[in-house]
Design goal:
Number of helices: 5
CATH architecture of the domain at 43-135: Orthogonal Bundle
Strand order of the largest sheet: 1-2
Oligomer: single chain
Structural class: mainly alpha
Distance between the termini: 29 Å
C-alpha cells in the first residue's frame, strides 16, 4: 500500500503511461498559463507564490519568514530577498510578533491583497477547467 492508502497497479499499462503524460502535460500547461497571468498584472511568479503563501497560511498568526521559506522551498536568505523586493513593491508588510519581538511575521498590503484576489479568481476558473480533463479525479464536494 502506498502513502495514499491505495494499492499501486501490479502491471503498468500503456494507459497508465498515457494518464501520467496527460496529467504532467496539463500540469505544465497550467503552470505556464499561470506565469503568463501573473506577469500580465505586473508580478513575478515568485511574488504570486509569496502572496499565496501569506494568505493561505493556516495558522491564526501571520506566517514567519521561515514559514514562507518552507512553503516556497527556498533557503531562508532567498526568502528574505524575495520578501524585501515584495515589500519594496508595496505588496507585503512586515509586522513584529506581539508576543516575541524577535519574530517577524508577514501580511499582505492592500495592493498585495488586490493583486491576489484578481489572480486567485482566474486561477480557480482555470483549475475548474483543468479538472474537466480528469473526471476520474473529480469530487463533487470540493466546490
Amino acid at each position: 500500500m502506498n502513502d495514499t492508502g491505495t494499492n499501486p497497479p501490479t502491471t503498468i499499462t500503456d494507459e497508465h503511461y498515457r494518464q501520467i503524460l496527460k496529467f504532467r502535460t496539463q500540469l505544465r500547461y497550467f503552470l505556464h498559463w499561470s506565469e503568463q497571468e501573473v506577469r500580465s498584472v505586473g508580478l513575478t511568479p515568485n511574488q504570486y507564490q509569496l502572496l499565496l503563501a501569506i494568505r493561505g497560511h493556516p495558522d491564526k498568526n501571520h506566517p514567519t519568514v521561515s514559514d514562507i521559506a518552507n512553503y516556497l522551498f527556498l533557503k531562508h536568505h532567498s526568502a528574505v530577498g524575495l520578501i524585501d523586493r515584495a515589500e519594496k513593491a508595496g505588496l507585503v508588510k512586515r509586522i513584529k510578533d506581539p508576543d516575541d519581538h524577535r519574530i517577524t511575521r508577514l501580511s499582505l498590503s492592500t495592493q498585495g491583497e488586490n493583486c491576489l484576489v484578481q489572480l486567485a479568481s482566474t486561477h480557480i476558473q482555470e483549475l475548474r477547467e483543468l479538472a474537466k480533463a480528469f473526471p476520474q479525479f473529480n469530487n463533487s464536494h470540493t466546490e
